């Protein structure tokens, strides 16, 4: 497991090779096996392979351009009507599970933040909702690109281990 976690790193350049349907199913199974508060499981996944839609998703903000190149864009949605308080945490856990499973299959991913704070002027969620006909009330946590890596990406390692505490701060 640690090997798959180590392998996962953000990939922003992809080969055009399609991702097998079986891999998409395993990624969905990994996502939907995540822990979920009260086991409410408020998540939905949309796999997008259509070129025009990926192109539109790549323009949702300035850090999403590689979605046009990745053969698949995965959209992670949550339903607050199912879990009003915990849908964000549940969908984050599902996203990470999906990305680790993708890494275990030799696939690259990169998380793209979408969830918006309308008051601060973020409208990405609305844009994604429009592109994919997502119903009103369903929230969009993030998208992530998916495909076979065209480069290795940079391995950042686990980060500062001095942030680990034992027994007390
Ligand atoms: C909530 C969140 C939002 C992110 N949004 C973007 C994004 O919009 N575009 C992007 O290229 N990377 C995005 N990333 C990826 C981070 O930049 C990346 O995980 C970080 O630089 C560490 O690199 P690593 O994933 O290779 O370990 C996001 C990651 C998280 C967790």
Description:
The two termini are 28 Å apart. This protein has helices at 2-7, 21-31, 51-58, 87-104, 124-132; strands at 43-48, 72-78, 108-113, 139-147. Helix 2 packs antiparallel against helix 4 (87-104). The model has no long low-confidence stretch (mean pLDDT 95). Strands 1-2-4-3 form a 4-stranded antiparallel beta sheet, with helices on both faces. The protein has a single domain, classed as NADH Oxidase, CATH 3.40.109. The protein is built from 5 helices and 4 strands. It is an alpha+beta fold. Helices cover 31% and strands 17% of the residues. The structure holds flavin mononucleotide. Flavin mononucleotide (FMN) binds next to strand 3.
Major sheet: order of its strands?
A: 1-2-4-3
Query: What is the oligomeric state here?
Result: single chain
Radius of gyration from the alpha-carbon trace, in angstroms: 16 Å
Roughly what percent helix?
25-40%
Biggest pleated-sheet summary: 4 strands, antiparallel
| Mean residue pLDDT | 95
Second CATH tier, the architecture: 3-Layer(aba) Sandwich
- Outline the low-pLDDT stretches: none
Query: What string gives the helices and strands in order?
Result: HHEHEHEHE
Given the C-alpha coordinates, what overall shape results?
globular
**Into which percentage range does the β-strand content fall?**
15-25%
Instruction: Identify the CATH homologous superfamily.
Output: NADH Oxidase
Give the terminus-to-terminus CA distance: 28 Å
Q: Which CATH class is shown?
A: Alpha Beta
Any idea how many domains? 1
- Bound small molecules, deduplicated: flavin mononucleotide
Given helix and strand content, the structural type is alpha+beta
């Amino acid at each position: 497991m640690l090997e798959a976690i180590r392998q996962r790193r953000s990939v922003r350049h992809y080969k055009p090779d399609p991702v097998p349907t079986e891999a998409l199913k395993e990624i969905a199974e990994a996502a939907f096996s995540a822990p979920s508060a009260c086991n409410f499981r408020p998540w939905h996944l949309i796999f997008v392979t259509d070129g025009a839609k990926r192109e539109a998703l790549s323009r949702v903000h300035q850090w999403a351009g590689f979605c046009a190149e990745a053969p698949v864009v995965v959209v992670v949605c949550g339903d607050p009507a199912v879990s009003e308080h915990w849908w964000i945490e549940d969908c984050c856990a599902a996203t990470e599970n999906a990305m680790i499973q993708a890494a275990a299959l030799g696939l690259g991913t990169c998380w793209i933040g979408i969830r918006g704070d309308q008051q601060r002027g973020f409208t990405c969620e609305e844009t994604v909702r429009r592109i994919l006909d997502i119903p009103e009330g369903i929230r969009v946590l993030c998208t992530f690109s998916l495909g076979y890596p065209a480069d290795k990406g940079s391995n950042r390692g686990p980060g500062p281990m001095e942030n680990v505490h034992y027994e007390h701060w």
